[in-house]
Amino acid sequence: MTLRLEGISKYVEGEMHIDRVDMACEPGQATVLLGLTQAGKTTLMRLMAGLDRPSSGRILMDDRDVTRVPVRKRKVAMVYQQFINYPSLSIYDNIASPLKLARISKVEIDRRVRAEAERMQIGHLLDRLPAELSGGQQQRTAMARALVRDAQLLLLDEPLINLDYKLREQLREDLQQIFRERDTVIVYATTEPLEALTLGGSTAVMHEGRLVQHGPTPEVYHRPASVAVSQVFSDPPMNLFAGELDNGELSLGAEARFKAPTHLRDLPSGRYRFGVRPGQMHLDNRDQARMALTGEVEVAEIAGSETYIHVRHGEAAWVVQVEGVHAFGLGDPITVYIDPDRLFAFDSAGRLVAAPASARPDAT
Amino acid sequence: MAKIELRNLAHSYGGNPSGPQDYALRRMDHVWEDGGAYALLGPSGCGKTTLLNIISGLVQPSEGEVVFDGQQVNTLPTERRNVAQVFQFPVLYDTMSVYDNLAFPLRNRGVSEDRIRERVEEIAAMLDLGDVLKRRAVNLGADAKQKISVGRGLVRSDVAAVLFDEPLTVIDPHLKWRLRRKLKEIHERLQLTLVYVTHDQTEALTFADRIVVMSEGEVVQLGTPQELFERPAHTFVGYFIGSPGMNFLDCGLDGDAAVVDGHRIPLSEEVLEAARQAEGRLEIGIRPEFLELTEDSGGVPAEVEFVEDRGTHRLIKTRVGDNELFVKLRDDQPLPAERARLRFPPEWTLLYANSRLVR
Amino acid sequence: MEKTYYPKAWLMVLPVVAIVSFSAIVPLMTVINYSVQDIFGPENRYFVGMEWFREILGDPEIRGAFQRQFLFSFAVLAIEIPLGIAIALCMPRKGPWVSVVLILLALPLLVPWNVVGTIWQMFARPDIGLLGIGINGLGIDYNFTGNSIDAWVTVLAMDVWHWTSLAVLLCYAGLQAIPDAYYQAARIDGASRWAVFRYIELPKMRGVLMIAILLRFMDSFKIFAEPFVLTGGGPGDSTTFLSQYLTTMAVGQFDLGPAAAFSIIYFLVILLVSYVFYQVINNLGKGVS
């Protein structure tokens, strides 16, 4: 089973929603559609499902053209942001509902419902009604219903967005396992880079209706093809600096000048946009090998175990992500440090021309 | 401005509570300082909304006293408590302009139009609403609407406390930090007592000087963000703050070390001192950020279950006996093999007895 | 939101299209056809152009009927809508009384039109009716069969009795939909009861009020059975409303041409006034700053 999109476009009343998307999704791993809200993720999923018909292009399932096959005749299951269950049916009947429609024997239904419920860790809740469960359990029910029917294509549209972060953490971890065991094409839409990273598989970055990069997740993360990808696939977005390379000397803004690091040395002299992830900006100058930038603190957001410091420097604004809890007053002066080794370089058209050597896609 | 005291406060909705399980809010005794920014943090159903409603006057506590600046206000209705409240969804008067929305609480109290203009313009400038004063409030974006809701609380000069009930729910994630900044700025300028209810740790830790962490109707810790992160007073705080939360391992004590699955984990002097009184179920707690991989043979052997690349760091799930342990590793640190040894730095290794920090 | 594409959907809609065209479009075409002809019999008809329209618009009796009709409909709105809002505001928001009150309110709506007429016919009779005797007992001379003002007031009272519940139920639904946070915020802002009504409840009820006003206008403008049973249109023609006039013309006198022209004018007036109401109420919500 492979899902293949060929030159898919979607126009609504002359307005472009999806522009010439070519992609292939393989089973056994999740394909993550990553993009900001309104990037076209949901529209693309509806096209994949057959809920809408593309304005042009073809959709192939295992080389069979299904572009004109209505959704009921494709084996598609979908999970939404909202926890959609039948409110008057028990959890058992909720999960069993797609199987009952498919006229499968009672014994077989029972076996599959219980197996699926166990896997989603809601086996002990089968007699309850959806309203009696927590949000996380309700979403597990909706997922179990989608998974129970052996769909060829499973689409999940930001399924964790309405859960609070502790439940999200737990479910995210379980999902990797669940996805790995399936012979189903799984497409998972999200706005959150962390979800793409944890689900592994491949990541397709959407931006303004276009597919801007698609590849194995670590590769996309470590070598974002353009400024747009660097913004979408980084939370908070990658910090950008206007800068210059001049005969082996690197300058950022007016103040920071440094010897160009190895990975930038072969680039021709000229103006570039340099990017660095918030987690690669520091408050200490380890080994005196970092470039210093000064600014003032706009606000420090504390996310439990990390602090996100919003820094303003004239017109420019950056976010620095540091481990632990750090208190800052509004408007405090601050000096932050960048490892020149960790800089991404983009040309004037926004294309990646150099990525940090240390950022190789070596992780599992 | 007000100091808020909760004296022996408890609440049960049913009446005739027969045990702790019948309380929506278990007995607490707190003093919230005048001009402080407080957050009530906890998962849904932990009692934080009940506590907020008791402070605002929508719910009368079944036991104990609520005291504003030395005056008991238990039976005082909301409108006479001089509190302002911002709700989860923006509450606006649809037919009014932004100006009239902001002026509404003052007009109801018979303030002169000149004085109203002065206050409204001052508050609007503070909230960056100066340009839209003449527009109709319904036509603005969610963040502007929520700022108007905040503004209606701030225009009154007699406000003792401003209460926030998950006010950023409807705000676009990318804009949230701006509003967080705005709220902090207002707090610095006006030195009002602010109480902020949320289930989101970032919201609470960013906004408040002091956080009240609640679980099952009980206040499990009241502390600064740093205290919650570094010295969680309760295993729930360790779990709830940080992602992933703190690692906990069942342990025994032997001399100067905790014993987990037959391995000795040395504890600090301070913990050992306090541990003499500890009884009940013992656990050691350590944050994934503080666990270290080591080559040293004294480290606790652990199996590596999987490694997750989270971009700027890696999350390693390890197993020691029956315990799962997360280790956070910077992305420039070398990856462990299938088996690794863990070092528990004594200064970050805490001891819990019956879920409470031993100290 | 985009719609799901499903090619067979058209087939599903076809029966409805067919029925609607037979039940509405064909008769309407017939009426338009009749309105420009003088008809003596099935084979005996002449084209007369706009003649009937001119005659209807110029007829002082019909003009009188239109005036009466407008007066009646506006009186109905002026009483039933404010009364409906007032009753809805007084109703309990939760608890066991809610269902009791709702059932009581719904009762008049369940009574058929002509039965309402019959009930009031007896109720208001000055000789044996409770209301009639009661009013006369207060020293007021009241006789709806003889005095045209009395007849008018009786028809109005009957309509109010019959239909105010509808306005109440709609307003009540509108009030129930207002989130609690609004009332809490208003209390905190120190708003008076009137301010809560003026700035929260009334704006939030705009949608349902529009439905109530349109429904009551259209229905009262077409009122037929109740006054027909109660007063038969009299005394004189004081309670002869448009639909009764039209029926007399079409069925009684078999003046099909003029009746058709009348029908079209009648229909257009309802359409126009409803449109004006719709626009005005809609703009009340948006326009002013």
Report on the architecture of this protein.
- The complex is a heterotrimer of chains A (364), B (359) and C (289).
- Residues 359-364 of chain A have low confidence and may be disordered.
- In chain A, a hairpin with a 2-residue loop joins strand 1 (3-12) and strand 2 (15-25).
- In chain A, 24% of the residues lie in helices and 35% in strands.
- Chain A has helices spanning 41-49, 91-101, 106-119, 135-147, 165-180, 193-199, 217-222, 227-232, 262-265; strands at residues 3-12, 15-25, 30-34, 56-61, 64-65, 76-79, 153-157, 185-190, 202-207, 210-216, 239-246, 249-252, 256-259, 270-276, 281-282, 291-302, 306-313, 316-323, 333-338, 344-346, 352-354.
- By secondary structure, chain B is of the alpha+beta class.
- Chain B has 2 domains: 4-239, P-loop containing nucleotide triphosphate hydrolases (Rossmann fold, 3-Layer(aba) Sandwich), CATH 3.40.50.300; 246-357, OB fold (Dihydrolipoamide Acetyltransferase, E2P) (Beta Barrel).
- Helix content of chain B is 25%, strand content 32%.
- In chain B, strand 21 and strand 22 (356-357) form a beta hairpin.
- The mean pLDDT of chain B is 89.
- Chain C has a single domain (44-283), classed as Orthogonal Bundle (MetI-like fold), CATH 1.10.3720.
- Helix content of chain C is 74%, strand content 3%.
- Chain C has 13 helices and 2 strands, in the order H-E-E-H-H-H-H-H-H-H-H-H-H-H-H.
- A two-stranded antiparallel ribbon of chain C has the order 1-2.
- In chain C, helix 3 runs antiparallel to helix 10 (206-221) and helix 12 packs antiparallel against helix 13.
- The two termini of chain C are 30 Å apart.
How do you describe this structure in short?
Chain B is an alpha+beta fold and about 350 residues long.
Task: Lay out the secondary structure.
The complex is a heterotrimer of chains A (364), B (359) and C (289).
Chain A: E1 3-12, E2 15-25, E3 30-34, H1 41-49, E4 56-61, E5 64-65, E6 76-79, H2 91-101, H3 106-119, H4 135-147, E7 153-157, H5 165-180, E8 185-190, H6 193-199, E9 202-207, E10 210-216, H7 217-222, H8 227-232, E11 239-246, E12 249-252, E13 256-259, H9 262-265, E14 270-276, E15 281-282, E16 291-302, E17 306-313, E18 316-323, E19 333-338, E20 344-346, E21 352-354
Parallel strand pairs in A: 3-8, 3-9, 6-7, 7-8
Antiparallel strand pairs in A: 1-2, 1-4, 4-5, 9-10, 11-12, 11-14, 12-13, 14-20, 15-19, 16-17, 16-19, 17-18, 20-21
Helix pairs in contact in A: 2-3, 2-4, 3-4
Chain B: E1 4-11, E2 25-32, E3 37-41, H1 48-56, E4 63-68, E5 71-72, E6 83-86, H2 98-108, H3 113-126, H4 142-154, E7 161-165, H5 176-190, E8 193-198, H6 201-207, E9 210-215, E10 218-223, H7 225-230, H8 235-240, E11 247-250, E12 252-254, E13 257-260, E14 263-266, H9 269-275, E15 282-286, E16 292-294, E17 300-309, E18 313-320, E19 323-330, E20 339-343, E21 350-353, E22 356-357
Parallel strand pairs in B: 3-8, 3-9, 6-7, 7-8
Antiparallel strand pairs in B: 1-2, 1-4, 4-5, 9-10, 11-15, 12-13, 13-14, 15-21, 16-20, 17-18, 17-20, 18-19, 21-22
Chain C: H1 9-35, E1 37-41, E2 44-47, H2 51-58, H3 60-90, H4 97-110, H5 113-123, H6 130-137, H7 148-176, H8 180-188, H9 193-204, H10 206-221, H11 225-230, H12 242-252, H13 256-286
Antiparallel strand pairs in C: 1-2
Helix pairs in contact in C: 1-13, 2-13, 3-7, 3-10, 4-7, 7-10, 10-13, 12-13
